[in-house]
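step: validate -> pass
step: tokenize input -> pass
step: predict -> running
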Amino acid sequence: MGGFSSIEGDVYSYGILVLEMFTGRRPTDDMFKDGLNLHNFVQMALPKKLVQVIDPMLLPREAEEMGVAAVAIVATEGEDDIDNEIEVEANSIQDFRHIDADLQKCLLSILNIGIICSMESPNERMSMEEVIKELQLIKKNFDGSGIRKGRSSQAQIRGA
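step: predict -> pass
step: emit ->
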């Protein structure tokens, strides 16, 4: 955000990097103008439009086959922040019912870390110690959910 190097600036950069990696968008993309930026774009979309902002490469094959990868996103910004809106153009209605609930929680949690770390005010950002704790918790929940690469959950193995 300009100025001298600081830990808070590094946290901001980390947050933007997380948002870049999970959305597949860069802060310099043409869609980000007139006050709209990557941080606001993701923040406005969550949680209801998760599928539309997440990089399709991160979604399960089933979601991609249902046309989620072809969703076009148009971001618009009104005169004041209250009018900010993200419009989704698609051939069919897409929502996050096509994604496993555990995967939804995982993606939402990670994107929320990116949003909090990239808050404009350094006082509103998470510390990296908090980020590590949150990421370890997400990993623990993700590992225990059985949603990784065809791995069966304990309930599936036991026939429940």
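step: describe -> The helical segments are 7-23, 38-45, 50-53, 61-65, 101-117, 128-145, 154-157.
step: cleanup -> pass
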